[in-house]
TrEMBL record:
InterPro entries: Ly-6-related. GO terms for cellular component: axon; neuronal cell body. Pfam families: Ly-6_related. One of its GO terms (biological process) is response to odorant. It comes from the Eukaryota. This is Uncharacterized protein.
Amino acid sequence: MYRQNRCYSCMSPMYEEFFKNGLDRYFTPPKNFSYQCDEPMNPESMHLVSCRTICLTVQQDLYIMGQPTGKRLFMRGCALTLARRGLNNHTLSMFDRYDICREMSAADLFRHDRADSQRVRVCSCLGDR
């Protein structure tokens, strides 16, 4: 019998303001906007969602006016539902066999019309996370 994974559904709190200004056109709102989603992850009180594929953690360095702030933002969720238009299949296939982390451009990961070339760190988990 096929077993579904359970993935955390959360984002760094700064994303909540971005969702109020249109980010929800591109990403599915998580169950939690919380500092507990950041590194180090604190799973206490984090909501989980069922997932038929892998769980992903996407880490983005925050830049202001082209300058790194030292702050990192996190998205955690199911690969199938994290982004409204989904993920690029050729990229997703790199993550579906092992628990791994890779750096890549956001444009290579997300299926957006105007995806940015900013680098993100993506980690996959084949089991519950």
